[in-house]
Specification:
This protein is an alpha+beta fold. It has helices at residues 14-19, 55-66, 125-130, 155-164, 166-169, 183-209, 213-234, 248-267, 279-289, 300-308; strands at 46-50, 74-77, 101-102, 107-108, 141-144, 149-152. The protein is 37% helix and 6% strand. Helix 2 (55-66) packs antiparallel against helix 8 (248-267) and helix 6 (183-209) runs antiparallel to helix 7.
């Protein structure tokens, strides 16, 4: 089995693995960094292109929020479903279209925007890449509005560079440091990042989007084994994964667990348990959701529309409704069965 890292999936024999039914995540092609000679750390210079249903984008919008970068880093939001087969540009493309109607709500989604980062009013994320001669089409994209260039489209790199340059970029929360300087805590964060990426973040996609039963089963077992490990870690009463401080490990875990009960339990076939069945993880989830800026950094309406709207019949489930609707449930830590 190829060895993955905390940033990306090993690409060994990727084509053969995909052909056999395994979901294999590709590698991002733009890997520059803020702080490089061409990309100085300046407030107001950078822009994000995201989709709020995408968990890889969600980790970036979370970093922007908890570091207080909402004003200094502008952002455009794509519609959660990609283009259809009848689109003139082709299917499966991220689209900036605030007038598009969501089947879940019967209305346009207020968070969706037109494209403002390039100054060209482009409709598709693909067109942003085409300006640089690239065939990529994924989000998130970190974009330099001055140089009119893509800095990075790897979410793990983006959150790290935002953290490292938060003050120079105009961040308003100097007390927040996602990767602490303390060597022991930093090593703990790095180990957790790898465990969470392989078992939880990418593991959810291995379970949900692989067409091979054995690959699915292995991902399913690893996902819930990892949840059990994290539940045990939090059982000593610590508020966050490494202790008293919210770190990058917590930020990386949150987008997947935020989606688990209302989306992944069904859509990714991860029906072994709900987050409500893990009291310590549930209270951790509620604790993170209560942090300033976190609720606004994601949207379960976008998640439901994005995941179920691209399923075989496009019908979006309305639940769960018991013991609470979501995301309202994340304001109720008492819902988890106490131990």
């Amino acid at each position: 089995m190829p060895t993955d890292t905390a940033t990306e999936e090993n690409q060994t024999n990727a084509a053969q693995r995909r052909q056999s039914g395994e979901f294999v995540r590709g590698v991002s092609g733009f890997r520059h960094a803020i702080g490089d000679t061409d990309f100085p750390a300046e407030p107001g210079r950078y822009h994000l292109f995201v989709a709020l249903n995408c968990p890889w984008c969600h980790r970036v919008t979370l970093a922007r929020a908890v570091l207080g970068l909402e004003i200094s880093i502008s952002m455009d939001v794509a519609f959660p479903n990609r283009t259809n087969d009848d689109d003139p540009a082709g299917p499966n493309l991220w689209e900036f279209n605030p007038e598009r109607i969501a089947t879940l709500t019967g209305a346009a989604l207020p968070e969706c925007t037109v494209e403002t980062g390039t100054g060209q009013g482009l409709r598709l994320a693909k067109e942003i890449y085409q300006c640089e001669g690239s065939a990529e089409q994924s989000v998130p994209i970190l974009y330099d509005k001055v140089a009119q260039r893509i800095v990075s489209n790897e979410s793990a790199d983006i959150i790290r560079m935002l953290d490292r340059n938060a003050s120079a970029l105009g961040g308003t929360r100097p007390d927040m440091q996602l990767v602490p300087n303390d060597p022991k805590t930093r090593a703990d964060v790095e180990a957790l990042n790898e465990q969470i990426y392989v078992g939880i973040n990418n593991g959810a996609y291995k379970a949900g989007f692989s067409s091979d039963q054995a690959v699915y089963a292995a991902a399913f077992e690893r996902y819930f084994a990892t949840l059990a490990d994290l539940e045990e870690r939090l059982s000593d009463g610590r508020p966050f994964l490494t202790g008293s401080q919210f770190t990058e490990a917590d930020l990386r875990l949150f987008p997947t667990l935020f989606r688990h009960d209302p989306v992944y339990y069904l859509r990714m076939k991860l029906n072994g348990a709900r987050m409500l069945d893990y009291p310590y993880l549930w209270r951790w989830l509620c604790r993170v959701y209560a942090m300033e800026g976190v609720p606004e950094a994601g949207s379960l309406i976008h998640c439901r529309q994005g995941y179920f709207g691209r399923s075989w019949n496009g019908v979006v489930p309305l639940g769960p409704c018991h013991p609470s609707t979501y995301p309202e449930a994340y304001s109720k830590p008492e819902l988890a069965d106490p131990r």
